[in-house]
Amino acid sequence: MRIDPGSLRSRRLTERPGDLPSQLFIHGGRAPTRLSVLCFQPTGIEEVELAGARDLEPLLSGGLPLWVRLQGLADTTLIRTVFDTLGVPAHMQAPLLEHPQRPRVDSIGDAVLTVLHRLSFSETPDRLIAEQVGFLLLPDLLISLEEVPSAGSFPQLTQWLRCLDPAPTRDDLDDILHFLIDELLDGLFPLLEHLAELLEQLEEAALLRPKPRLLSRTYQIRSSLRDIRGQVWPLRHQLMVLLRQTQRLLGPDALHGFQDMEQRVILIFEACELIRHQCDSVTEAYMASISNRMNQVMKTLTIVSTIFAPLTFIAGIYGMNFVNMPELHLKYGYGIVLVFMVLVALVQSYWLWRRGWFQDWTAPRH
Q1: What CATH superfamily is the domain 301-354?
Q2: Which CATH superfamily is domain 28-169 in?
Q3: Is 295 within 8 Å of 321 (Cβ atoms)?
Q4: Secondary structure, 3-state, the chain
Q5: Is 159 exposed, middle or buried (0-12, 13-18, 19+ CB in 10 A)?
Q6: How far is CA 188 from the centre of its chain?
Q7: Quick count: other Cβ atoms within 10 Å of Cβ 113?
Q8: pTM higher than 0.85, yes or no?
Q9: How many Cα neighbours within 13 Å face the side chain of 291?
Q10: Cα–Cα distance measured from residue 50 to residue 257, given in angstroms and rounded to the nearest whole number
Q11: Are strands 141-146 and 66-71 parallel, antiparallel or unpaired?
Q12: HSE-up (13 A, CA, CB side) for residue 357
């Protein structure tokens, strides 16, 4: 054995074979970036579609509270330019641009940074799709960045804001942030309800027709439930810390809303725990059903063995080759023995039937 030349020589990373690790590949590419602004004017709300960051300067010079909405992460240069135009610090841009990020609610100076995920089912409810959504609350400014654009940025909340009389002002930006987070959290309840209904169907199928694929689907649901729980768990402590801090951007109504949000997070977490126990119930029902079917098979084999054991004993006796066996010389001895064996089998079958051995406990119940 010998060491290859140069194997112990230290080399820089750029001199080694290969290249530096790049970002994760996204199938289909990143969604195109769209920029829109909601201006809170005294007469009402005005939605403006912008082509670039330069179009923000006239709106900022007006001194009106703004809700800047960015959708899609394809054009990171445009997003960074918009952030620089709005005066967003560099250390707050990274959590919004880099994904996937852990859910967080942080109070940094005179800003509130929030990163959440919008969860939805794919073609089958066994898999979840997570879309990162970030919010940044600054004085007289609210910024939202969505990873995947939709037909409209929070259309229901936008329509509700337009119907308000009087129109929202700069003091309502913190309440809008609370409503945005609420909308994302409220979207988890239908997912949990759907998972609970699916587990009920799997539990019934496990009792009637247990198949191995039921366990695989249960494990997939448990994985999806783990992802939902992972989105909620970090918020419990972070919301408590936010409520204890003195954040000047959050008014009394917004603080009350975040307190309700803390209770909602606890409800979601408890619902996840209940559904997790429901997954265990499906597994236990499957194992119990398989055990019952195995017991039924063993009982059938026991019945067959019990009936044929005396018959085998009789056949074994008369199969012995001794000379002094009186029954061997009977004219109807063969028929008598056969009739006797049939009677023994019938008596044993009747006795087992009376004791309930022929009842199938694994038969489907409708």
Answers
A1: Magnesium transport protein CorA, transmembrane region (1.20.58.340)
A2: CorA soluble domain-like (3.30.460.20)
A3: no
A4: CCCCCCCCCCCCHHHCCCCCCCCCCCCCCCCCCEEEEEEEECCEEEEEEECCHHHHHHHHHCCCCEEEEEECCCCHHHHHHHHHHHCCCHHHHHHHHCCCCCCEEEEECCEEEEEEEEEEECCCCCCEEEEEEEEEEECCEEEEEECCCCCCCCHHHHHHHHCCCCCCCHHHHHHHHHHHHHHHHHCHHHHHHHHHHHHHHHHHHHHHCCCHHHHHHHHHHHHHHHHHHHHHHHHHHHHHHHHHCCCCCCCHHHHHHHHHHHHHHHHHHHHHHHHHHHHHHHHHHHHHHHHHHHHHHHHHHHHHHHHHHHHHHHHHHCCCCCCCCHHHHCCCHHHHHHHHHHHHHHHHHHHHHHCCCCCCCCCCCC
A5: exposed
A6: 10
A7: 20
A8: no
A9: 6
A10: 31
A11: parallel
A12: 18
Rounded to an integer, what distance in angstroms lies between the CA atom of residue 104 and that of residue 226?
17
Segment 258-286 shows an average pLDDT of 88
Percentage, residues of the chain above pLDDT 90: 5
318 half-sphere exposure, CB direction, 13 A CA radius = 18
Mean pLDDT over all residues of the chain? 82
**Cβ-based neighbours of 295, under 8 Å, separated by 6 or more:** none
Domain ranges in the chain are: 28-169, 301-354
Query: What are the tokens at 287?
Result: 């194992």
Six-digit token string for 298: 């063993």
Tell how strand 128-138 and strand 141-146 pair up: antiparallel
CB atoms inside a 10 Å sphere around CB 139:
12
Cα of first residue to Cα of last residue in the chain, in angstroms, is 72
What pLDDT does residue 216 have?
Answer: 86
